[in-house]
Amino acid sequence: MTETSVSDLTIRPFRPDDRAALLALNAYGLKAAGIAVADDYYRGEDFDNLENTYTTAAGGCMLVGDQDGKIVAMGGIRRVDENTCEILRMRVYPDYQGRGYGRTILELLEREASRLGYRRVTLITGENQHPAIDLYVRHGYRTALREVLAGMPSLHMSKDLAVADPEALRL
After folding, report:
1. Please, what CATH class does the domain formed by 4-169 belong to?
2. Is the pLDDT of residue 168 over 70?
């Protein structure tokens, strides 16, 4: 995926030097959901090895929303199996919410998932994360399972993707 812009936000794939900003934005997102960083469900997985999780070669992608050199939004996909990927780490700082940044990142991630050949997208979100749930439902996601993860009531949601011509989806 190449760089794209929406309003005053530049959305691009992450770079290795974004790591500290991604960790800070993720810590904010966990705190907002009432989860301690030590209780992160994905702890020890993706952020410990960004390059091997969120690159095309690994079947993934991490997008960052950059505004004037500051990362204010992010979201990623990672490979689950040959037909399924997972959306995770969807975050937007509060001062930047309500501008469509999360929606745009979600749409770009779905497009990239289709380009990579995935037929299904899954995600997990907190049962009380109503703006996120509303966003996912508007984009066709349905609840597949409810369970408690890291002490938090959580929803597993999924959506089937239409796989189109990869060249037509190239960003």
Report:
1. alpha beta
2. no
